[in-house]
Design brief:
Layout (H helix, E strand, L loop, with lengths): L1 E6 L2 E3 L5 E9 L4 E9 L6 E7 L4 E3 L7 E6 L6 E6 L8 E9 L2 E4 L3 E5 L2
Parallel strand pairs: 2-11
Antiparallel strand pairs: 1-3, 3-8, 4-5, 4-9, 5-6, 7-8, 9-10, 9-11
C-alpha cells in the first residue's frame, strides 16, 4: 500500500508560478514511477507529467516547457514535485499525484489550483 498526500495548491494570477508537492509513504521502496494528473471542471482527467525511477521524465504537450517534475529520494523521503510556471486559466484544475507500485496505480486526494486575476 502506498499513501500519497499532495500540497501546494492555491490561487495564482495568470503568468504566476506554483510548486506542488506529493509525499509518498507506505510501500515506497516498490514505487516504479510517480506523476501528476489534473481534472478541470467539466473535463476528463488528463495526464500532466511523470518521472520514472531512472530519472526519465515525460510531459503533456500542453505543459511542456512550463512545468517541471522532479523527485526527491534522499533520506528515505519519497516526494515528487511539480514546478508550474507561466500559469494560465487553462491550468485551473484539481491536480492529483499518482504512484505506480507493483503494477498498481495509487492516487492522492488532489489539490486545487486556480489561475485567475
Amino acid at each position: 500500500q502506498v499513501q500519497l498526500v499532495e500540497s501546494g495548491g492555491g490561487l495564482v494570477q495568470p503568468g504566476g508560478s506554483l510548486r506542488l508537492s506529493c509525499a509518498a509513504s507506505g510501500g515506497i521502496r516498490s514505487i516504479y514511477a510517480m506523476g501528476w494528473y489534473r481534472q478541470a471542471p467539466g473535463k476528463q482527467r488528463e495526464w500532466v507529467a511523470s518521472i520514472i525511477n531512472d530519472g526519465r521524465t515525460n510531459y503533456a504537450d500542453s505543459v511542456k516547457g512550463r512545468f517541471t517534475i522532479s523527485r526527491d529520494n534522499a533520506n528515505a523521503k519519497n516526494t515528487v514535485y511539480l514546478q508550474m510556471n507561466s500559469l494560465n486559466a487553462e491550468d485551473t484544475a484539481v491536480y492529483y499525484c499518482t504512484a505506480v507500485c507493483d503494477g498498481q496505480v495509487y492516487w492522492g486526494q488532489g489539490t486545487q489550483v486556480t489561475v485567475s486575476s
